[in-house]
Write a structure and sequence with these properties.
Radius of gyration: 23 Å
Order of helices and strands: HEEEEEEEEEE
Number of helices: 1
Structural class: alpha+beta
Distance between the termini: 58 Å
Shape: elongated
Helix content: 10-25%
């Protein structure tokens, strides 16, 4: 008889815990057809870069860049680069996850190469974050068209 109380108590506790977990995922208000909003990246892409571009996809109006130096990138980092319009706009696919936000900047421009840094900034303070990886399209502006120069990609992470 003593064990029946323990089993029943454990069952009630599990039921309560599972009910609390599913209540967090329910949309406010009735209407079971509602969906919760999803998080979006603050790395907003200009109109010429589709926000849903996949890591290996060049936008329809983009011209793929083939002269790349990606030796400094981690193995799993996307390596898709393109130019748009007159060649002064260079697009790259960034990588961000959880509370991180991706950005890109031009570090150097020379007659033979353009060095672009991909940066993922994460919050300095601990907070609840999703466990996803996103690949936002990013653009940088060059002072002169890319032409035949090599694009050198580097990446780093920073906390702010």
């Amino acid at each position: 008889m003593r064990h029946i109380g323990t089993v029943v108590g454990t069952g009630v506790l599990l039921l309560a815990i599972s009910a609390c977990g599913s209540a967090q995922n329910a949309a406010p208000g009735a209407g079971g057809g509602e969906t919760l909003p999803t998080a979006t990246s603050s790395s907003e892409a200009p109109p010429e870069v589709p926000p849903n571009a996949s890591p290996g996809e060049v936008p329809p109006d983009g011209k793929p860049v083939t002269k790349l130096d990606t030796n400094a990138l981690p193995e799993d980092q996307p390596r898709t680069v393109w130019t748009v319009g007159d060649g002064k706009t260079v697009g790259v696919i960034g990588q961000e996850g959880g509370c991180g936000k991706a950005s890109a900047s031009v570090l150097e421009q020379s007659a033979s190469a353009v060095k672009i840094e991909l940066l993922e900034t994460t919050p300095l303070t601990k907070q609840m974050c999703t466990m996803d990886i996103r690949f936002p399209p990013l653009t940088v502006q060059l002072s002169e068209p890319l032409g035949e120069r090599t694009v050198v990609l580097t990446s780093r992470q920073e906390q702010k």
